[in-house]
């Protein structure tokens, strides 16, 4: 099956609800779907796949119970998909992603070219060509929910503003595309992790302390994206947390791991006012010591998590507990938490 990663762009008028579930089970009229969903189905057909997973249709949107359960399945949905269709260029579900592109991105290669040249005698040099074209971020690259969808997916066909590009977890080489590729693959994931590294992490081939450090990088990359609702701060990264939890075998505490709790508490925000959740619309249900309680981009101080490092912490953790919002989703939101230090 294919999985779709896309921007909602506001409230969805076409979605599965408790009222529409029975009718949708019988039939969904494709012509009535928003253009992005129609395009995704068209791509799925052309890839010779019979099934596609779309969150607005596969989750009962007015059922808190079903949403909580499905959020807990996100890691499985995207990591087990044959391919993820990324509607990267579409700002909203009605926009579609198979329309014509501007010629700018097709005609002008936005990458460094090194051309050999004769300097005189037998000396050779290089002429470096670097067009001053700044493409910026596509809509999908700014959204919080799509962060883990991209990292967890083994294969992605990415429909961007300037190109369509295919990336695969098993390849670190150049990703084939229908235009000019402007970035190495590893830069497309926002947290400094390419898909091969993520695959190695999930397979457990990295030491625990390295895993804890990578987690902080993931959180920093994730929080640099936008969420419509502050309460989604933890649920939107729950799939990634579950993957790490299966490897670390550690307690997950409102976005932190018990084994690396002290260094992960050393978080900050470049915008001081974002650290005041109740004043800026942050998540008031999350304990204030968690990075998830604040809005905006979170950065971590670069103290080593290696126990052999000379850095030591004067503080010690006596007790730390959190209570999940839904016990079926241990890596999702929390409704309370306590931390006692000495």
TrEMBL record:
Protein name, UniProt field: HET-domain-containing protein
Alphabetical list of InterPro entries matching this protein: HET
Pfam family, one: HET
Positions of the Heterokaryon incompatibility domain: 1-149
